[in-house]
């Protein structure tokens, strides 16, 4: 049951009913805007269901970290100017909506005896090791049996919470990343365009081809869509974290996903040959869907296989002109995607053949059989 009381009824204990503090397996649970907000308002029934889901996880002995969207959608209703498109408008909407989002979550969780604390992060706190402060906060909260409630600090710039949750799952070496949404998982083709689309239960290794089949679009006020969720899946599974995409309808979904019961679509942790890519490399390679692809000459493929910088002179074909920071698929001479990474050009991409296109440490090797060009 929900109340309007913002105060935590048991602030002194800081522990969870039915579970020793901080003893459980770590799980990162991300919920999207459309699973929490209806017509610009936090939906009490949806919030109640989220609380049930988390509470059942806690009773089962898990230590959840919750990543919630919804601030922008809620904030947009607070001023007529905020209904417009544009990044600055989104940032302002987030500034107005975040406190409303968090205080409702805090009150609802407190009703169940769960103590929460709010963290507004950007990916930089997770991928730049010298910004070490957040690890102490998260570790201490989890040890004390509190539930960290995380959102992107959208007032500074809006990114994507699926990706943030994936980074967090790798940062904490969680047992599970659960991406809750309003569809029951991944389909073998875009279910909004095809009645024959069939759900996929188990993904052994994500491929660019599967990504292309899955399609999907953003909606419901968030920045999500299936392509972004798959970006998150690349990051989490390369970090060694099992990942599940499922819908919000069943409050046992967290416990079921953690127990590896068949729920939604499960992505197995990636088997990586050689050194595991660091979290910063994973972020640069997978934080957005690729803008396009480049096909390498044999020397370019060798450079990628040795983990060296890919240079303009290594490229024989490119379907786009790329800007600094774009994500691209790097394909072998026969067109197979072999890596994905971030284009790094000093200023506009230059024709200097020796200049770097994708620097060592900015791409991740992937394997796929289908040609991408
Ligand atoms: N963090 C944003 C919000 O709270 C949304 C971004 C996203 O949905 O990924 O509204």
Automatic annotation (TrEMBL):
Chain residue ranges for the region called Disordered: 1-26
Top-level taxon of origin: Bacteria
Pfam families assigned: AA_kinase, PUA
Class of this enzyme: transferase
Domain PUA: 303-346
E.C. numbers: 2.7.2.11
Record's protein name: Glutamate 5-kinase
């Amino acid at each position: 049951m929900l109340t309007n009381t913002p105060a935590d009824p048991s602030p002194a204990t800081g522990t969870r009913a039915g579970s020793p503090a901080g003893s459980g397996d770590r799980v990162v649970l991300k919920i999207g805007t459309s699973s929490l907000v209806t017509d610009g308002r936090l939906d009490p029934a949806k919030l109640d269901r989220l609380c049930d889901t988390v509470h059942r996880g806690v009773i089962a002995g898990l230590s959840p970290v919750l990543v919630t969207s919804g601030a922008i959608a809620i904030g947009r209703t607070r001023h007529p100017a905020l209904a417009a498109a544009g990044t600055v408008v989104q940032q302002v909407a987030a500034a107005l909506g975040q406190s409303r989002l968090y205080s409702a979550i805090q009150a609802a969780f407190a009703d169940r005896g769960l103590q929460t604390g709010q963290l507004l992060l950007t990916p930089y706190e997770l991928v730049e090791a010298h910004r070490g402060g957040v690890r102490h906060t998260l570790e201490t909260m989890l040890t004390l049996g509190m539930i960290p409630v995380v959102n992107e600090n959208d007032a500074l710039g809006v990114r994507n919470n699926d990706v943030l949750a994936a980074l967090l799952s790798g940062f904490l070496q969680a047992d599970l990343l659960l991406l809750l949404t309003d569809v029951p998982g991944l389909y073998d083709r875009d279910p909004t365009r095809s009645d024959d689309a069939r759900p996929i239960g188990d993904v052994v290794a994500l491929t660019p081809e599967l990504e292309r089949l899955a399609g999907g679009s953003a909606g419901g006020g968030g920045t999500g869509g299936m392509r972004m969720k798959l970006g998150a899946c690349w990051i989490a599974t390369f970090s060694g974290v099992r990942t599940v995409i499922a819908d919000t309808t069943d409050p046992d979904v967290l416990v079921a996903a953690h127990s590896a019961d068949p729920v939604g679509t499960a992505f197995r942790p990636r088997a990586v040959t050689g050194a595991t890519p660091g979290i910063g490399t994973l972020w640069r390679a997978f934080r957005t869907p690729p803008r396009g692809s480049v096909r390498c000459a044999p020397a370019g493929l060798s450079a990628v296989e040795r983990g060296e910088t890919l240079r303009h002179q290594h490229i024989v074909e490119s379907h786009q002109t790329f800007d600094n920071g774009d994500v691209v698929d790097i394909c072998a001479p026969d067109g197979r995607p072999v890596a994905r990474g971030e284009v790094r050009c000093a200023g506009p991409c230059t024709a200097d053949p020796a200049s770097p296109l994708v620097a060592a440490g900015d791409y991740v090797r992937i394997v796929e059989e289908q040609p991408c060009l």
